[in-house]
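Notebook B, p. 112. Complex prediction, attempt 2.
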Amino acid sequence: MSHEYVPEIALDRDGNEHVVQGWQDDFYGGKLGFWLFMFTEVMMFGAMFLTLAYYNTLHPHDFIEASASLNRLLGGTNTVILLVSALTMGLGLLKMRAGDVKGAKLMLYATIILALMFLGIKAVEWTAEYNHGVFLTLPALQSGNEHSLPFGKILFFGMYFTMTGLHGFHIIVGIGLMLWLIKRINSGKVTPEHHILHWNIALYWDIVHLIWVFVFPYFYMIGAAAATGGTGGH
Amino acid sequence: MSKSYFDETHCAIGHPKSTFMQWMLTVDHKRIGIMYAAVMFFFFFIAVSTAFLMRLELFAPGQQYIDGDTFNQAFTLHGVIMIFLFIVPGIPAIFGNIVMPLMIGAKDVSFPRLNWFTFWLYILGCIVAIASLFTDAGFADTGWTFYAPYSLTTGTNVIFTLVAAFILGMASILTGLNFLVTIHRLRAPGMTFFKMPLFVWGIYATAWIQLLATPVVGITLILAIMEKYFGIGIFDPSKGGDPVLFEHLFWIYSHPAVYLMILPAFGIMSEIIPTFSRREIFGYRTIALSSASIAGIGYLVWGHHLYTSGMADLAKTIFSFLTFFVAIPTGIKFYDWIATMYKGKIVLSTPMLWALGTIVTFAIGGLTGVTIAMIGVDIHLQDTYYSVAHFHYAMLGGVVFLLFAGMHYWFPLVTGKMYNEGRAKIAFWVLFIGFNILWFPMFIAGYLGMPRRYFDYLPEFTIYHQWSFFGAVIFISGLVFMFYVLIQGWRKGEPSGTNPWNATTLEWHMPTSPPPLENHSKVPYVDFDPYEYYHGEPVVKFDYETMRRID
């Protein structure tokens, strides 16, 4: 809000002055609010990981075989891209706090490009899977026909497309947020003195990459040993 | 005459001239609370009418007015409106908004614009929920719980209801988030957590549940939508999925949600009891901490909804034990309230009558809940009218009765007027008697085996249904009369003054009645406990211009 906001002073009975925290200009309030919002993301993905773990215990072999069929090269590349994007995001925030607005914007653009690369690779992966006949609503993931995969694999791929899809949706939202942030920086509404929005979007991006850090091993890596001829947990 | 919050407001976008647009765009927490109340009671009456339609149908065995499919849609509509549109957002959205910032001496909530946005998100959710009534496939017929696999195969428009529940969940999360930050950041100087009024404690505990439990049901509904339209398989037995998993995920939210409803209601009780006993509340810390522990333990009891759905015996035993355990902090609260009244100067005003009535009805609702927390008893009573009567005693006789208590208690604060106390008391007695005639026979019918959600029944149950119908007529007459009294009070009532009840908490120390736009004229320094009485008189007095203590 306006920079001229002057907090009120409350007096106790001895006449001592106490600064009143208003809703205006409340940096820590803004941060706390966004941290709380991030808890909801954790609970949301947490429920899906719970579901995934439950079906994994029911169908361990199907899960490992399905995982082995995923493309670890592309998934791994995406993991690296996302980790680097978290770095650029963090550097951008540091630059903003140090007063380097131009550098901060540069880092935001870098983050957006990395995010787009992530989405591009994801699209390549999904297309390849579609061409293999493994995609939502295709016969392989339906029950009771000649192409039907075993139960465990149907469930694995159902959760795979749901969770990576929802994660991808968060990436898209993140790109939108970053573009909005750049607009706010350009119009002088986000400055080194008032950068709570930048701070919170950086936090959002951290959560998005942190979720991927759990999604990647659970979908791609549990079958890695089976794919390379190892024992695969047998 | 000084301006109240009805005369001026801050807006989210620009500053429109017309009064109507000023209401639509307002960020003032008091106005937003009033708008929530208006919308919620509108839907409340729709749901009451639907329930009355079902009572009519059940007046005699066999088909009377509606067919079985319509009956299924009717109880779904009733449940969806009552749960998602009315009782879950209810007390936090209405009184959490109007009163909580006043109680802690804040000018508004932490994120006033977000609060405005949340209100409109709620409206959007309401519209989506109701929209399917006007489509060809019709309203969902699954019950408000959307149990798989039926919800995935039914031909009715269940997608609307699922999406609506998700949107309303988002609104609920954002409300909770806003209140948590407000309570953490905007308390007046000197007000530590243990100097907060107990209603604020109730809102605080509730906000944590809203924040941490709602996302789980949100994702469950998304998974159900993914299942229904993309066939991901996780709730579909023909693909190896497990429908019982849906029940688990659903109740992981929806059981904490019943504490989400009752905790702010208990907060209202904890305000009313000391005010009308003119006595400091007994066991302040135990009430505050029991709210927090109910919120905590409430997460771990969801399995008691699934005793008959297929679950390991060990898990059943643990859930049963944990469910008993949650009754302990609730019992502590009840003893504290009763101990507060002991040797107090009890004033039987309308809010106090409602609070005392609730002690009776909620005690019945709570204790019958303990009986069906026992595994063996529950196998017999699951999905009978016994559980229907139990949760209506707890929800209607607990949450809604306390909502009404709060409405009568804070009515002078919100409107600056006083309703006709004599008539309001008559409305209470009519509602209280009608309520018991309506629901108590269901305990007996359920115990004898009357299943819930049935459109027809065996002739031997006729008498119970007819008593219920009789009670419903009395109850609805009482409702109409109560709202008539309140509306008349707002239109023609006498000015109430700032503190008609001789209450002690900060919302009663306003410079004008009704309060001005930015609340207290100055933020007070809080070096006192919330309920300090001495010989039946409030201890703390303020000069309302400077908000400094003059006692």
